[in-house]
DNA-binding transcriptional regulator, MarR family
Amino acid sequence: MDNAGLLSRVHMLYLASHNLRLLIDQKIKDNHIGFNGWMLLVCIRNESQIVTQREIALRMGLKEPSVGELIKQLMKQKLLVRAVNISDRRKYAIKITDQGVAMYNEIQQALQPLFHTIFPGQMEQLDGLLQTILTATKRYTAE
C-alpha cells in the first residue's frame, strides 16, 4: 500500500473518532462528567472484576495521576467509591456506585440511537478491525 492510501485511511479513522467524540460530548454534557469521566465509567462498568487505578490507567491509555484526579471527581459526584482491595491491601479497588450505574445506563440509552445506525454485522467487523489496529499500534509504540 502506498503512503498516500495509508495516510488517507489514518485521516478517516481520526475524523471518525473525532466526530464520535463530539457526538458523545453532546450526549454527556448535561451530566457534567466530561468525555474521560464517561470513558472511565464505561471502563469500570464493563469489567467483570474489580479494578485498580493502575489497571484503569492502562486500559484507558492515560497516566495514573490523571486517572486519580478523574476518580476523585467521580467520587465527589458519588458515581464511584474506593474500597480496600482484598487480594492486595496496599491497593484500592475502584467500584461504580448504584448512582454511577444509573448515570451509565442513562447515557447509554441516549447514545443508543447513534449506535443503531450501524448494522450489527458491521459493528462486529468494526470491533475486529479496531482490535487489530490496537494490537498492532501497541506493539510498535512499545518499541
Observations:
- The mean pLDDT is 86.
- The longest helix spans residues 3-28.
- Residues 62 and 73 are 16 Å apart (CA to CA).
- Strands lie at 51-52, 80-84, 92-96.
